[in-house]
Amino acid sequence: MSSLSVPPPQCLLQPYTVPHRYLLGPGPSNVPPRISTAGAQPMLGHLHAETIEIMDHVKSGIQYAFQTQNRVTLAVSGPGHAAMECAIFNSVEAGESVLVGVNGIWGERAAEIAQRIGTRTLSTDYYSTAEIALIKYKPVLFFLTHGESSTGVLHPIDGIGELCHKYDCLFLVDSVAALGGTPIYMDKQDIDILYTGSQKVLNAPPGTAPISFSERACYKIFNRKTKPVSYFLDLSWLANYWGCDGKPVRSYHHTGPVTGLYSLRESLAILAETGLENSWKRHKEVAEYFHNGLEKMGLKLFVEDKKARLPTVTTIVAPPGYEWKEITGYIMKNHNIEISGGLGPSVGMVLRVGLMGCNSTKGHVDMILQALADALKHCHKSRV
Ligand code: PMP
User: Residue 152 Cα, ligand 1 centroid: separation in angstroms?
Assistant: First the structure.
C-alpha cells in the first residue's frame, strides 16, 4: 500500500509535444533554432567561470543594444515586469514623488507599482506637460514607455532626459516592446534607467530582462536612506552578482536562469552580427510595407500619425461590424498564427500584430495580410 494520498497525475505520464505556431502578437515572438539550441546546452552552476563569462558577454551585448557605457548593466532574472519593479523599487523611496507619462497600459501599471511602495504618483498624458509637473511636484523619477505595445504608440525620447536633469529628476524608460526595432541611445538621450524584455525583438525565451543604470541613477540608489522593499530585486545585490560593483568576489544572491542566459547571449550575438542600425531599418521597412498592405485592404491604423507608429507592434482599428475575438480565433485556427486584441485602454478597439526580430520580414507580412483577408471574408459581419 502506498503512503501517498495523491497519485501521480495521469497527464504527466504521457509526453507532451508543443506545436509550432507563428507568434505575431505583441510577444512573446518566435525563438529561432539558433537561440533555442544555445539554450539547450548543458547546465552549469550559476557562478561557474563559464557562466560568469557568458554573463559578461550578455552585459557587453546589452551595452551595445542600449548604446551605453554604464557600468551597472545586467539582466534581471524574470520577465519585463521584474525589470520594471527593479527600476522603480530601487530608485524611489516611500514618500517621494514619481511622475508617470501615460500613453497606454504600461504607464498605468508603472504608476500602480510606484503607488504600492508608498510614493506620491502623478500621471501626465503627454510629456509636453511634464515640465509643469516637474516644477510643481518635484518628482525624483519620470517614467515613460518608449514603445507602448497596448496602443501601438512610439514615444519620442529626445530632450526629456535633459529636462528631467534640469529638475534633479531621473529619467526611466520602458523599451520592452521597442528595443532593437527602433532607435534608442541610452547615453546620448540622457536616460538614467532603461530596460527591455528578452522575448520581443531579441527573440529569446521570456525570463531575462536587460536593464541598465546611469551613474546618476546609481548615486541615488546607492545612497538611499531605506532598503528597497524587494530583497530579490535589490540593485546592490544584483550589481554584485553581475560583477558591476568592482568587488573581487561575486556572492550568491539567487540562482539565475543559467540556460536563459545562454539564449540571451545568442540573441544579443545575432543583434551584434546584424548591426543595430540594420535591425532598426528592417523593422521600419517591414512595418511600412505592412501598414501599406493594411490600408490597401481597407483597414485603418489606430495610430494616425505615421511618425508615432511603433514599428514592432501595429495596432489596427478593430474592423467595424466584426467581433474581434472571432477574427483572432479564426486566424489562430485556420492559419496557425497568433495575433491579439487590445490591452488595457485599447481593449475592444484594436487588433495587435507584432513583427519582431526574426518575424520582421516581408514574408511574414504577406502571410498575416492573407490571413486577415481570409478572416474578414469568413467571419460573421453585422451591418454597421
Ligand atoms: N512593458 C511593455 C511595453 C510591454 O510590452 C510588456 C510586455 N507586453 C511589458 C512591459 C511587460 O513584460 P513582461 O510581460 O515580460 O513582464
Answer: 13
Per the document, the length of the chain is: 384
Q: What is the DSSP letter of 301?
A: B
Is 352 labeled as ligand-binding? yes
Task: Specify burial of residue 265 (Cβ count, 10 A radius: 0-12, 13-18, 19+).
Answer: buried
Q: What is the pTM of this model?
A: 0.97
- Distance from the alpha carbon of residue 310 to the mean position of ligand 1, in angstroms: 14
Closest CA to ligand 1's atom 12? 80
Give the angle 40-41-44 at the CA atoms, nearest 5°: 120
Spatial contact of 310 and 149, defined as CB atoms under 8 Å apart? yes
User: Counting runs of H as helices and runs of E as strands, what totals does the chain give?
Assistant: 12, 14
Cβ(293) – ligand 1 distance below 6 Å:
no
pLDDT tens digit string along 83-129?
999 999 999 999 999 999 988 899 999 999 999 999 999 988 766 67
pLDDT digits (tens, 9 = 90+) for 228-286: 999 999 999 999 999 999 999 999 999 999 999 999 999 999 999 999 999 999 999 99
How many C-beta atoms surround the C-beta of residue 122 within 10 A? Answer: 17
Selection from 78, 86, 47 nearest residue 208 by Cα: 78
| Candidate from 81, 85, 173 with most ligand 1 atoms within 8 A of CB, to mutate | 81
Q: In the beta sheet, which residues pair with residue 144?
A: 173
**Cβ–ligand 1 contact at 79 (below 6 Å):** yes
Contact 258, 96 (CB under 8 A): no
206 lines ligand 1 (CB under 6 A): yes
C-alpha grid cell for residue 249?
568576489
Strand partners, 121: 98
- Cα–Cα–Cα angle for 177, 40, 180, nearest 5°? 20
